[in-house]
Structures are given as structure tokens and as C-alpha cells.
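From the shared-data thread, chain only:
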Amino acid sequence: MAEVSFYVLSSESLQERYLFACKLIEKAYRGGHFCYVLTDTIKHSQHLDDLLWTFRAGSFIPHQLYTGEAPDFKEVILIGSLDAPEHWQKTIINLSSKCPANFRLAERILEILDNGEETKELGRNRYRYYQQAGIPVSTHKIEHTAS
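Structure, as C-alpha cells:
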């Protein structure tokens, strides 16, 4: 059964939300987890893809955009706005406004919200949806995201 963690940032900045996502992605990668990062659009996926190259000096995280084609390697972080492919459903980092499809197949879903009203309202809807599905949900308030 999936376990869901919501991270609620004190900032309303989309950029800080994506930087926090980079930190979670790096932590997952260093822990041997090759996650899928779900975004709303290919533009958002591309932005995160670019940010992963520059967010921290000396950091290297193998990643690529997912456009429906299976990647050549399984040991890579995938970023996309499509449903997570089979081998990347264990850990999902959700930057989108919707619940991941087949979320019951995931072991862990990490939801990252900024403090904007629209983002929080969409997050509340997903929170209730997970709860109604009987999935354990935890919430973490993040005051500062700078490293």
C-alpha cells in the first residue's frame, strides 16, 4: 500500500517548489530509488530537467524526460506529464495538480505544495482523495528551502 507525504513550503514561489523537488530527487537517487516526477505539462518537465543540472554544484543525478518511450536504462530518474511507466511507479514525486494514475501501485508518493492558495486547494483535494482510499498520509511544513 502506498504511503503519501505532503511537503508544504512556506513560500508561494514555484521556483522554490522545484528546487525543493530537486533536493528530494537527489535524496531518493542517493538512496537507490529511481523515481518518477509527475508534472502538469512538458514545459514544467523541461524546467525541472534543466534545474537538475544546475541546482547544486557537483551534484549529478541521471535523469531524462519521459515522453512515452521507455528509457534505455532503468537506473534513471524520469520526469514527465504522462502516467508513470511500469518500472518507475514505486516512488512518485508529484508536482502536478492531479493524483498520479495507478497511485495504489506506488510504495511512496511525495507531494510538494507551495503556499499559494490554488496549489494548496488542489493539494487538499488530493489529500482527501488519498484518505478516502485508505492510504496513510503525513504532512510536513517546510519553513526554509535554501541549502
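The first helix runs from residue 14 to 30.
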